[in-house]
Recover the amino acids of this structure.
């Protein structure tokens, strides 16, 4: 029975240490959130400010790295899509496809961010004829109104 008392005392000491540690961490968390700053000295406030600035630098660095990784992946995907597009256009030309949209790449895009207007024109033979129903009547109506 004498051996049980020191074990209980050690457990109680561990409990007190953990309780103190939890209270310290909770206070630190509140301070980092801008709460309960009144009792802090100027030196403690400066240390807190430095800690927050260092944390912000780490966060911004991680964010920048994540954005750079996403940009790299998107550029890789863009290149893969351009290659696939080029291969598909080649296959269409090999099968005798005359009614193909002109090829536009990232280099063909002007400073406005849009493809050249000439490149955007569709070859009417390529479109579904059912889409042209009523188009000529609409154009005639527009021409008559302007005349």
């Amino acid at each position: 029975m004498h051996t049980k008392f020191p074990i209980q005392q050690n457990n109680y000491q561990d409990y007190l240490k953990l309780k103190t540690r939890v209270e310290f961490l909770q206070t630190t968390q509140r301070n980092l959130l801008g709460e309960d700053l009144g009792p802090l000295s100027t030196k403690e406030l400066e240390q807190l400010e430095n800690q927050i600035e260092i944390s912000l630098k780490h966060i911004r660095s991680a964010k920048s790295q994540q954005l750079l990784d996403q940009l790299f992946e998107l550029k890789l995907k863009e290149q893969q899509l351009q290659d696939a597009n080029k291969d598909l256009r080649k296959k269409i030309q090999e099968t005798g496809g005359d009614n193909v949209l002109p090829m536009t790449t990232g280099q063909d895009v002007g400073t406005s961010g849009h493809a050249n207007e000439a490149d955007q024109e569709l070859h009417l033979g390529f479109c579904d004829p059912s889409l042209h129903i009523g188009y000529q009547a609409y154009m005639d109506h527009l021409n008559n109104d302007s005349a």
Residues 109-125 have pLDDT under 50 and may be disordered. Residues 4-99+126-146 form one domain. The chain has one domain: 4-99+126-146. The chain is about 65% helix and 0% strand.
